[in-house]
Amino acid sequence: MEVNRIAATVNGQSITAKEVGVMLGPEINRLMAEFPRRGPEFDRQLMAAKDKVLNELIDRELIMSEFREREQKGAKLPDRVVEQELQRQIRELYNGDKQKLIDELAKARMSMASYRELTREKMIVQAMRQEKFKDAPPPVPSEIQAEYQIAKDALRDTTKDVLDYRKIFIPRVDAANPLASPETQLAQAEMVTEKLKAGEDFAELAAKYSADAFAAEGGLQTNVPRTDLSPEFAAILFSAEPGKILGPLEDPVGFTIARVERIDKGPAPPLSEVKELIDQRVRAKKTSERYDEWIKGLRRHAMIDIKLK
């Protein structure tokens, strides 16, 4: 994605392809890992993700227009709220590794300061929504408890996630075979994947084909922290059902076929620690129809020009 393009304009304010690219970064990395040959499903999911992000940014800009009027009268979002959100994103999207976020921003030629501002605007939009519908009926205890049960998995400390999994690694370049190419190595990975799906033994195939250090152990790795994996691989593995064959998954050095054996997820925070957030989630659900109508009204009276296709 070209980072110097204008993705859309909203009432004369620009949304850049750079902003879209940064927000898309984790999802693009996941899709590229999951679809080494790209193809129509990769294109479909990428386009859907891009459309979702762009529309979120357009809605953000519509709401920010209203906030700027209030800002002139002294309205302000505390810096600590922005910092808390940044820490949440680093924890959940980048396995707690701030450097991974910085590297992702570097790919899009965006500074940390610019990303912080992007995050600040996102938080302002959330605050504006809460205030707009503050007259919504307060959640009752049963609604709070039900929403907590839905949300607690997403709110857990993902840096404490651990799994056991089997892995077959086929390098992009095979030093022992000068005739091998990334294309033939991918083809071999696909062949091994088909054998696994047909019921052949994972340990035997790992011992035969894997260039991984754990090949002699049947590719089995135990008690692997989520933070030891790349964010895109972690997102795929920790969302998989145990026993399902995954892959071939691509990274810069080769192709991985994996099977999750066990997932031990990090602890969820007690309700007492996240009650305010859960309260907000319940209120947002109760007012979702009114929010959609509000946004539609803002869009009807705005000048929106979408340039990124």
Write a structural description.
The protein is of the alpha+beta class. It folds into two domains: 6-136 and 287-306, Porin chaperone SurA, peptide-binding domain (Triger factor/SurA peptide-binding fold, Orthogonal Bundle), CATH 1.10.4030.10; 158-264, Chitinase A, domain 3. Helix content is 56%, strand content 15%. The chain has eleven helices and seven strands. The protein has helices at 17-34, 39-71, 79-93, 98-107, 112-132, 141-155, 182-197, 202-209, 231-237, 271-286, 288-300, and strands at 6-10, 13-16, 162-171, 220-225, 245-251, 254-264, 304-306. It has a four-stranded antiparallel β-sheet, with helices on both faces. Strands 2-1-7 form a three-stranded antiparallel β-sheet. Helix 1 (17-34) runs antiparallel to helix 2 (39-71) and helix 6 (141-155) crosses helix 10 (271-286).
Radius of gyration: 23 Å
Q: Let me know the number of strands.
A: 7
Structural class, from secondary structure content? alpha+beta
What's the number of structural domains?
A: 2
Total DSSP helices: 11
Distance separating the two termini: 11 Å
Arrangement of strands in the largest sheet: 4-3-6-5
Oligomer status: single chain
CATH fold title of the largest domain = Triger factor/SurA peptide-binding fold
CATH class of the largest domain: Mainly Alpha
How much of the sequence is in beta strands? 5-15%
**CATH homologous superfamily descriptor of the largest domain:** Porin chaperone SurA, peptide-binding domain
Low-pLDDT regions? none
Helix content: 55-70%
Biggest beta sheet attributes: 4 strands, antiparallel
CATH architecture of the largest domain: Orthogonal Bundle
What is the general shape? globular
Compressed to H and E, one letter per element, the order equals EEHHHHHHEHHEHEEHHE
